[in-house]
């Protein structure tokens, strides 16, 4: 009789309804005989509202972030089995592991994302059954001083922010082999995926305005706390089931000073501001604003203002600053796009002033423009430079 309902062929049987479902990856003789069983079951598990409400209480049990959670029901296996390390998929030539002793208060499910140095997994807090996302960094990758600095900075920044349009931070867990960041799970769709499902891969001005307003609201909040995101793009905006915006992935985020300019070449090529490409000294907010303008243009047209099949061509066109706004875009919206894509970061409109713009105030409701036509759309979402 094998434990946890696992048969010799590696299949998994769902436990009887009256019992609590616990799904694990079981390792025998260093061979994994079950795979991502949560894919079958996680949507069937009840997800009550979280018990924490105060911004000061960031983790699932109501304690201040960093404190140890109260003991949850013990898993049905002995101490030796509990301390085992369970292999996950390889990432960037480094094997990541889930340490069950470090994540004793969570059931960890399937992969929901991956980056250059981290994998993100869906998880459930055992006590509240509240879903969350756990970003897992292998400590082997953190041996690189630059990567470690960025990760620690990301955690520091996430702890500082609390805004309805920004993904929430719950806690960090320092395991023996991994560093875990527990965050809000945004169940919905990435903005890019939402866009490509639309006719001609574009939104009307009313829908685009509502999404863009929330993005800029999150940016304005960050800038007010001297934080800049530095990687605003379609892929880093998530829509929940009610189509509320959540800014995600603060891996490039940093704190800035109005008195001290800096230069760091980072971000996604299509969204890079000219001051970055020209290697000028700058401070953060105008860079975020520029990227938000590229994103707005993409929402409305299904393409990017500066196109090219190589990074160099994209950069050359950004430097020249020449682009065409389709005729079906309303004049107020066109004016806002031009104010955002101002090549001069000093005169470029701020996030605060964007929220005061007539197009935002009127929620994109302007009738003096023609309907979108297929001929005006240039699809660049498959461009290698995205």
Automatic annotation (TrEMBL):
<comment type="subunit">
    <text>Monomer.</text>
</comment>
<feature type="domain" description="Protein kinase">
    <location>
        <begin position="106"/>
        <end position="360"/>
    </location>
</feature>
<keyword id="KW-0067">ATP-binding</keyword>
<feature type="binding site">
    <location>
        <position position="135"/>
    </location>
    <ligand>
        <name>ATP</name>
    </ligand>
</feature>
<dbReference type="InterPro" id="IPR011009">
    <property type="entry name" value="Kinase-like_dom_sf"/>
</dbReference>
<dbReference type="GO" id="GO:0005524">
    <property type="term" value="F:ATP binding"/>
</dbReference>
<dbReference type="Pfam" id="PF00069">
    <property type="entry name" value="Pkinase"/>
</dbReference>
<dbReference type="GO" id="GO:0005737">
    <property type="term" value="C:cytoplasm"/>
</dbReference>
<keyword id="KW-0418">Kinase</keyword>
<protein>
    <recommendedName>
        <fullName>Protein kinase domain-containing protein</fullName>
    </recommendedName>
</protein>
<keyword id="KW-0547">Nucleotide-binding</keyword>
<dbReference type="GO" id="GO:0035556">
    <property type="term" value="P:intracellular signal transduction"/>
</dbReference>
<dbReference type="InterPro" id="IPR017441">
    <property type="entry name" value="Protein_kinase_ATP_BS"/>
</dbReference>
<dbReference type="GO" id="GO:0004674">
    <property type="term" value="F:protein serine/threonine kinase activity"/>
</dbReference>
<keyword id="KW-0723">Serine/threonine-protein kinase</keyword>
<dbReference type="InterPro" id="IPR000719">
    <property type="entry name" value="Prot_kinase_dom"/>
</dbReference>
<keyword id="KW-0808">Transferase</keyword>
